[in-house]
Design a protein that fits this description.
About 25% of the residues lie in helices and about 30% in strands. It is α+β, with helices and mostly antiparallel strands. Strand 2 and strand 3 form a beta hairpin. Bound molecules: iron/sulfur cluster (2 copies). One iron/sulfur cluster (SF4) binds next to helix 1 and strand 3.
């Protein structure tokens, strides 16, 4: 049976926190707990005029890959609510091929 995961094209992540909030609502989590947590690197200047500022959301051990929503034929809540459309859900085999398209993507396997 195919294993599923999340592919995050973090080059386009704006750091909006929508995935965090959507996930907390979906899982009914208390304040301070997350199914996915946004991390922020920077800002710092590592060379004249060159800045590090990166946002990457990281699923936690509480992520269920939205099994209940998916069983109803929906996509995961975080994927649906990402305005930047930088998250995808699907079989790991298919998502892993997309890693070849361009850099600054991460693939999460949570099964
Ligand atoms: S797939 Fe569902 S449970 Fe996992 S991070 Fe996204 S919203 Fe949360
Ligand atoms: S909803 Fe999308 S753009 Fe916003 S923080 Fe999450 S991954 Fe980034």
């Amino acid at each position: 049976m195919a294993k599923y995961g999340l592919l995050i094209d973090y080059n386009w992540c704006t750091g909006c926190h929508s995935c965090e909030v959507a996930c907390q609502m979906e899982l009914g989590l208390p304040v301070g707990q997350y199914g996915i947590k946004l991390t922020e690197l920077g800002p710092w200047e590592y060379a004249p005029g060159k800045w590090q500022l990166t946002y990457v959301p990281i699923p936690t051990d509480q992520c269920t890959l939205c099994d209940k929503r998916v069983a109803m034929g929906k996509i995961p809540s975080c994927v649906q609510h990402c305005q930047a459309k930088c998250m995808q859900y699907g079989p790991l085999e298919e998502l892993s091929k997309l890693l070849l398209d361009h850099p600054k993507q991460v693939l999460y396997s949570l099964d």
